[in-house]
Amino acid sequence: QQTIRLSNVCKSYGNYPVLKNIDAEVARGEVVVICGPSGSGKSTLIRTINRLEEISSGSITLDGQDIHAEKRTKELNLLRSRIGFVFQNFNLFPHLSVVENVTISPIRVKGVAPDVAHERALKLLDRVGLAEKAGAYPGQLSGGQQQRVAIARALAMEPPVMLFDEPTSALDPEMVGEVLAVMKGLAAEGMTMLCVTHEMGFAREVADRIWFIDAGQILEIAPPEEFFKNP
Ligand code: ADP
Ligand code: ADP
């Protein structure tokens, strides 16, 4: 049943502890929203899950497989490809077209045939409402469109889990809704999701549980109806 399990995860930068004894689980199909003040460790926490950041101690498993123990490059890349990641600043390849951004990882990492990857990419772009932008370059798109391409790119690896690190924070306000709509669609389809976001409307409506983190510690894990209840 459990998908991601963090056990006693600690991380320090030098002597400065950023994550303190994090113990938490994400169940299959669950949508978790991580919230907390700026500098509390939200971004660091989510980045440790696909090993964009190393941890100092503890363990993080995906379906029982220890992500931080894997030392073999190929196995680690396969493991990481099962965890889709969407960044605040999109991180698209600027010199590749939209459709190439979506096909490159399946072709390179998974050995999917280019024509098969291309067909799947077009379907994913259609799903995020960008079929007509397949041949465009990221620089020609709005922020909201670029972020939807980034979501399609992550989905192209068919990950069982998607992580979002403030996916709407870099967007102009009028583009936030189109990205949240794609995320809501994924949640409705049963995707397991872990999202750092300040969008409390999304948290209320879509989250199964909220993790509240402060100064590197999880202080509360609760469903939104409980979390947002007036004290
Ligand atoms: P949040 O996402 O909640 O705003 P972060 O995870 O970005 O918090 O940062 C948590 C703390 O760790 C902050 O005090 C930040 O300054 C610090 N920090 C983040 N990255 C580094 C780093 N590479 N080196 C040193 N300190 C860092
Ligand atoms: P965000 O809150 O959007 O994550 P930050 O300003 O916290 O952005 O961090 C931006 C980058 O700088 C991140 O890669 C983070 O790891 C790094 N960083 C943050 N705080 C520090 C710090 N005190 N020392 C070194 N690097 C840091």
UniProtKB/TrEMBL annotation:
- PROSITE patterns recorded: ABC_TRANSPORTER_1, ABC_TRANSPORTER_2
Drop me one GO molecular function for this one: ATP binding
Per UniProt, what is one Pfam family of this protein?
ABC_tran
SUPFAM superfamilies given for it? P-loop containing nucleoside triphosphate hydrolases
Q: Which ranges carry the ABC transporter domain?
A: 4-231
ATP-binding: is it a keyword of this entry? Answer: yes
Which keywords fit this entry according to its UniProt record?
Answer: ATP-binding, Nucleotide-binding, Transport
Protein family:
Belongs to the ABC transporter superfamily.
Q: Entry's PANTHER family? A: AMINO ACID IMPORT ATP-BINDING PROTEIN (PTHR43166), PHOSPHONATES IMPORT ATP-BINDING PROTEIN PHNC (PTHR43166:SF4)
The name on file for this protein is Amino acid ABC transporter ATP-binding protein
